[in-house]
Write a structure and sequence with these properties.
By secondary structure, the protein is of the alpha/beta class. The protein has one domain (24-269): 3-Layer(aba) Sandwich (Glycerol-3-phosphate (1)-acyltransferase), CATH 3.40.1130.10. It contains eight helices and nine strands. The protein has helices at 2-19, 26-48, 59-71, 101-112, 129-135, 146-163, 187-195, 240-269, and strands at residues 74-79, 90-94, 114-120, 139-141, 165-169, 199-204, 210-211, 216-217, 220-226. The protein starts with a helix and ends with a helix.
């Protein structure tokens, strides 16, 4: 255990050193972020095993992830906490940009309620992180087998009502770092309508400090905004397209607004 703690301390020191340089290699910073999170989860696993599949198991790794991000020079602020309603479940929809969204989840997890994430099954096989994410209740779906995915999500939609769960999903279905959100897939809206639970849009500003194509990873700041719920009670399957359009429009408008604010903040940071 002492050896592992020394490794995490070394990783944080390296990350802190790298955060002072805008020219630090993109691959190195991403490696520190991903490997560092794996080590954090490894340290927490012995404690998480005591209560498997419990969302509270993620509190420790989430704290460690936030500290690692700060060491890399990435800070985030969260707004709209007053819009969270913990007395009932909901489908929480977020825009998806990069692996750094793991840090967004680390900020949301302690405040959103009884959270559960839906992830592709391949994540389960990642060293340490896969087992850890299973321990904190991640729902893994096999995208290549539609029937399995639907059955798994139907079970989770039942949990939304029975245990007031917050089901966190990325409706775009893939990473997108452009200034326009991709069309939303219907899976998450099927769950919302089936459980008659509200949709909680969460918008994350564009990561101006991160560019995978140009291999840029500078210190920077992002804004997370939890928007008011969009009700689905009383809505039917034929109302889905209207609800999707409304949700997309609300999130796109906020994404444009937040991204412009974040751009100004990040420009000042690098002047």
């Amino acid at each position: 255990m002492a050896c592992v703690c020394e490794m995490i301390g070394l990783a944080c020191l390296v990350a802190l050193f790298m955060s002072f340089s805008n020219k630090a290699p993109y691959q190195l910073k991403m490696a520190i972020f991903l490997i560092g999170n794996g080590i954090i989860v490894l340290i927490c696993i012995p404690f998480m095993i005591l209560r498997p599949r419990d969302y509270r198991n993620a509190f420790g790794p989430a704290w460690g992830c936030r500290q690692l991000c700060k060491a890399l020079g990435v800070t985030m602020e969260i707004r709209g906490l007053e819009n969270i309603r913990k007395e009932h479940g909901s489908v929480v929809l977020m825009n998806h940009q990069s692996a750094l969204d793991l840090c967004v989840l680390a900020y949301l997890w302690p405040v959103i309620g009884r959270a559960t994430v839906v992830s592709k099954k391949e994540v389960l096989y990642l060293p340490f992180f896969g087992f850890g994410s299973w321990l904190w209740g991640t729902l893994f779906i096999n995208r290549s087998r539609k029937t399995d995915s639907i059955n798994a999500l139907q079970k989770e939609s039942k949990a939304i009502n029975e245990r007031n769960c917050k089901l966190l999903l990325f409706p775009e279905g893939t990473r997108n770092s452009k200034e326009t959100l991709l069309p939303f897939k219907k899976g998450s809206f099927h769950i919302a309508l089936q459980s008659q639970c509200p949709i909680q849009p969460v918008v994350i500003s564009k990561y101006w400090f991160l560019n995978g194509e140009k291999k840029i990873f500078r210190p920077g700041h992002a804004i997370i905004h939890i928007l008011p719920e969009i009700p689905t009670a009383g809505s039917k399957k034929e109302d889905m397209d209207t609800i999707i359009e409304k949700t997309h429009n609300v999130m796109q408008a906020e994404y444009t607004k937040l991204s412009q604010e974040a751009k100004a903040l990040n420009t000042k940071k690098h002047v």
